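Researcher: Next entry in the queue.
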Amino acid sequence: MATERTPTEPDISPGSHWIAVFAVALGTFLLVTAEQLPIGLLSPVGSALSVSEGAAGLMVTVPSVVAAVAAPAVPILVGTMNRRLLLVALMGLMTLANLASALAPDYPLLIVARVLAGVAIGGFWAVAGGLAVRLVAPADVPRATAVIFGGVGAANVFGVPIGTVLGGLTNWRVAFGALSVLALVVLVALLAVLPPLAAARPVALRRLTGQFRNRGVRIGVLATFLIVTGHFSAYTFVGPVLRDLSGVDEGFVGPLLFGFGVAGVAGNFVAGAVVAKRLHRTVLAIATALGVTVLLYPVAGLTAGGGVTLLVIWGLVYGGVSTSLQTWMIKAAPQAVEEASALWVAVFNLAIGLGALAGGTVVDALPLRGVLWLAGVLLLAAALAVWSARRVPSLR
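Model: Structure for this entry, 396 residues:
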């Protein structure tokens, strides 16, 4: 006799939807490319729309902040809407947002388009981050999560550089237009391969905030905030660090950042392979290694060889952050994966903006080494927070 399905049990047969996992990974690739592409297009956009590069930088800040709000807000607002249809709708919004960016006649309308992109980024990531538990067998969840977040690293290695080159060779509007086409391709792929993903229950604000009563979730959110803020406070200024502290020629900075991204992709899959059996130790090792690596820079990174070595280690270790922390949230709240993921995505995106802001403040007030000290302290504080969760049974 058929048994009744529990609210937290997937409504599909696990283990047969790896093609859907790869389609979602393509979606995360697009999201991160869309979020960060303007970094390489600030000058041409500023010139075309008669705004300063500082004002043009809002094309990056605005969607990050909006995504932080949208991550918890979208699941609450859509209630029990089928998650397959929600992901498709958000990718449709991303298609329109990039098209609007490409056609924007002035700067205010471009920012409005970037707001729409932020909604799509936050909403899609909040749902997609915890989707592996509904697409594959339990034993394969960490590996599937690594695949989904592999799209993040791939965007940094391939998506953003290729988009920047395309915009430089043609026009910045062409780059955004190409993103719109890619978003449409992802939309079709999601329609074709995603199984029905009925929501077992709506995400309510009460249940969302109630996750903070879960010690594992609290520590995961705190660790995410400290790690991401620390990383971006220093990484935002990695170009000047390589040039001014390590003595690397300006022309090599771009290729070295590409190497950082390649190392990050490798780190993502290494973490995915070990995190299932050693979750707490993996996250603790990542936070500690990041803190030590960044703090070593002012001492061991004062030559080109030392700086490049530390950069590669930094990229390799940071590459495991997304997969490991998302797995942490899944394990900490197995009965509320979507709520915990929404909180995690909100904090992650907010920390990106705050990290860059904090780093800029320190760089303006102190020598360049100061931003590395700040990042190192935050990262070691994250390691301490993770260590404090050593007795939480679900995180061992």
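Model: The longest helix spans residues 141-169.
Researcher: Noted, moving on.
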